[in-house]
Give the backbone structure.
Amino acid sequence: MADGPSDANRRRPTAVADLSEAGSLEALRAEASDCRRCPLWAPATQTVFGEGPAAAPVMFVGEQPGDQEDLAGRPFVGPAGHVFDRALDEAGIDRLQAYVTNAVKHFKFEPRGKRRMHQKPGGGEIQACRWWLDREIGLVEPRLIVAMGATAAQAIFGKPMPIGKNRGRLIDLAGGTQALVTVHPSYLLRLPDPAAKAAEYGRFVDDLRLARRFFEAA
Ligand code: URA
């Protein structure tokens, strides 16, 4: 999808985007490709914007692009994306019918030798990037927003939301939209115990089955 930023773009001085008048996801994506709203843009390859139909009934929100997403310019195409795809499949959801995005749209990492180690985005970065997420929500107007993991939940609710306490139930948001909190797929990848991993994966698929209803009723 999107190519990496040109050298000219990389050298462009910091500029906060003007208030967006973007009337379509494509226009918004184009604006976001130049985002300088926080410092994460500088070492990243490119903005990884959301993707999916503008009329998607369900929006899935992750944390931030990982190494592979940063290179590909698409959300959830790396290892966590493979878990997400498999779980969607098992829940009976066609990913192409959903809008998939992240709370933070640049990869935050720490270079270690040749590797780029994921770093959790901070509150300031989540807040800065909400500007884009709010506009994606405004354009897509999903009936359900699925927040996968603590960063996504914080972005959607504007405050920390413990996942264990809130997962798996529908929560009303303003304007008739509902939210569903669940774990992040990379959490499942990190669980060392195979039995716990299988059980948690099953709960994740159950949460997605709840989301499936919103496609059926669309
Ligand atoms: N993790 C995320 O939260 N989002 C991605 O796009 C990839 C990994």
